[in-house]
Structure formats: C-alpha cells, structure tokens
Amino acid sequence: MSEFAIEAHALTKAFGKARAVDGVDLAVRTGGVYAILGPNGAGKTTTVRMLSTLLPPDGGTARVLGHDVVTEADRVRGRISLTGQFASLDQDLTGRENLVLLGRLFGFRGREAHDRADELLAVFELTDAANRPVKTYSGGMRRRVDIAAGLVVQPDLMFLDEPTTGLDPRSRNQVWQIVRALVAAGTTVLLTTQYLDEADQLADRIAVIDHGRVIAEGTSGELQGVRRLGRAAPAAHRPGRPRPGPGPARRPARRGRPPRRRTGDLDRASLRRGRRAGVRRAGRAVPRRRRDR
Ligand SMILES: Nc1ncnc2c1ncn2[C@@H]1O[C@H](COP(=O)(O)OP(=O)(O)OP(=O)(O)O)[C@@H](O)[C@H]1O
Ligand SMILES: [Mg+2]
C-alpha cells in the first residue's frame, strides 16, 4: 500500500477571475483521518471535488491512492467514496430503497443488495426509519443515510465534505463514531470542516485553508499556537462584520477529554495572528506515530 493516500501539488482552480483553490499542497498518509479546516468559501469543497475527480484542476497535480486524478480518473473512482456537503440521495425513495438501488448499481444481486442495505441501516441506527422517504428524515438521519450510501462497498478512501454542519451535538457525535469506525475498518478519511473542535477530536493532521491556500498544516498539538494566540488577543470587531463570538479559537485544546467544548466557526483573525507569530507554514506531512484512539 502506498504511504500516501493523497499527494497534491500546487492544485489550482479558478471560477472566472476568482481563484477558489490557489496552489494547494497536501500529503495525506494512508490510514487515519485528515481534516481540511476552513471558513465558508475557503475552497474546501472545490479541493475535494478535484481530488475526487469531479472537477478537473486548472493547474497542479494530484495523485489519489497512487493514481493521477486526471489521467487515471477511473482507477481513482473505483476506490474512493464521496459524501458531499449536500444530500445526494433520491429524497422520494425510502432509506432502504436508496441503499438497495446503490447496491444494485454496484453489482450486488437482489438478495445481496437487500442484505447489505439492512446491514447498513442497522449500523447507522436507521432500521426504524428504513421504509420512510428520505425527505421525511431529520438532518442527522439524512447525514447518516448519506454516509451509509458511500459505504455500500467499503472504499479505501472516503471524502466527507462537512459531514456534521448543522447537526446537533448528539448527531454530530454519532457521525464522529462512524468516522472512527471507518478508520478502524481500514478506510482513510479526508473530511472538511469549519469546526476547530471537530478537526481536533478526529484528525491526525489538519490543513487550515483560507482563500484557497493552505495557511498552516500539522497535528492538532502543533496548531494549538494559533488558538493560544487567538485567546491572548481577541479579534477586534470590525464595523459591518459579525462580532466574533466566544469559541475554541480562544481556548487551548485538551486531548482525550470528552467533546464538551462549544463549537465555533474558524476565526480568520486568529489564523492571521498565528501566521504572523510563525506557526508552521504548510508543508509536506512529516512522519508521525499514529495516535491511539
Ligand atoms: N461552480 C462555481 N462557480 C463559481 N464559483 C464557485 C463555484 N464553486 C465554488 N465557487 C467559489 O469558490 C470559492 C470556494 O468555494 P468552496 O465551495 O470550495 O468553499 P468551501 O470552503 O467549501 O465553503 P463552504 O464552507 O461554504 O462550503 C467561493 O468563493 C465560491 O463562491
Ligand atoms: Mg463547501
């Protein structure tokens, strides 16, 4: 198995004159969870779309599971799964019908497709809702069935684009458990998030992205300097912009504690202060020991 599940170099994508992704380098080791952390419009989804072969890059290169995302897109697609930011299932079909349909598309025979669907519904605690149309599901249930849909065949690499945005703490926790179980079963996970605590809790390494660029990269511990600085000097409120609320940007993270911290959006001012203070610039991932989970 290749040491790196993802290797991207100088990845670029522009929409008109706006550079959504502006020279992103990523090195994601096989196994574990890698988080791309950034605020709205940072370029997270665009990066994921390029890495998952949905969008051709304007510049740069990316290899996913050893294959070039442009010239070997089919080989990449055969081994990855993507759960997008917005639900992609047929909302009029039931949860079970959606999963059976996908199973059939993957080549399962009728009985096998039903068995796999039932297995996933049980694992994702959706058995009771299995025969209801997906459009009647709560947000948390939709996210779970969305992720289940990506696991009809277990992929080597799973992209989860903002898997917990908008979820309540209980549903968020369920998704976190799913991510941990996926990794334990051998899938590498790349997830995007706007939440510092989510990246902190789940990820082995984090790339902080803003305005299409990776502005810091490292383990949660290595990136804590950004948050300490944020706490020491709260962001000044600029007229016309939302007043920054309290959040993890001002609290040092503590490993191994239950996720009691409040969720908060990434604070751009903290990131800038961190950069000025010399928080390590993005670079190639350095070898590290896998954290015990
Ligand atoms: N298809 C598109 N056409 C034009 N502009 C786009 C398109 N897709 C993305 N953009 C722009 O590219 C930039 C990055 O968008 P992207 O969706 O990658 O951000 P994001 O980090 O995923 O944000 P969010 O957290 O809101 O999902 C934004 O300015 C967005 O408006
Ligand atoms: Mg997005």
What is the element string, with H for helices and E for strands? EEEHEEHEHHHEHEHEEHH
**What ions, cofactors and ligands are bound?**
adenosine-5'-triphosphate, magnesium ion
User: Under CATH, the topology is which?
Assistant: Rossmann fold
Mean pLDDT: 80
CATH superfamily membership, which one? P-loop containing nucleotide triphosphate hydrolases
Count of spatially separate domains: 1
Distance between the termini: 22 Å
Strand content: 15-25%
Largest sheet, in brief, is: 6 strands, mixed
Helix content: 25-40%
Cα-atom Rg, whole angstroms?
19 Å
Total helical elements: 9
Given this structure, which CATH class is correct?
Alpha Beta
Number of strands: 10
Strand order of the largest sheet: 6-7-8-3-9-10
Query: What gross morphology would you assign?
Result: globular
Based on the coordinates given, report the CATH architecture: 3-Layer(aba) Sandwich
Structural class: alpha/beta
Quaternary structure annotation = single chain
Overall description:
- With 293 residues, the chain is of the alpha/beta class.
- The chain has one domain (32-56, 68-276): 3-Layer(aba) Sandwich (Rossmann fold), CATH 3.40.50.
- It has 9 helices and 10 strands.
- It has helices at residues 44-51, 73-77, 95-105, 110-123, 139-149, 169-184, 196-202, 220-232, 268-276, and strands at 4-15, 18-29, 33-37, 59-64, 67-68, 80-83, 157-161, 188-193, 205-210, 213-218.
- It has a 6-stranded mixed β-sheet with strand order 6-7-8-3-9-10, sandwiched between helices.
- A hairpin with a 2-residue loop joins strand 4 and strand 5.
- Helix 8 packs across helix 9.
- The radius of gyration is 19 Å and the shape is globular.
